[in-house]
Amino acid sequence: MNWNISIRQIHRWLSIAFTVAVIVNVIAMVQEKQAVWVGLLALFPLVLLLLTGLYMFALPYAAKWRGARGISG
């Protein structure tokens, strides 16, 4: 199982979930139904998007570091 492909797929689906949560939040605000859980609805996928995004951001640097360490060591 390739973790990079799995993380990318999870990141894509999280972006869809985040978009839906934001749309639900906007609709709730327009209808003036203020509920705390609606405001926090987008926070969970956003945190997971941050984690998966940081992982994908660090991948090229980790590959360079492992490659440089393997050559010199």
TrEMBL record:
UniProt KW Membrane keyword: yes
Transmembrane region(s): 12-30, 36-59
Highest taxon listed in the record's lineage: Bacteria
Keyword terms, alphabetized: Membrane, Transmembrane, Transmembrane helix
Name of the molecule in the record: High-affinity Fe2+/Pb2+ permease
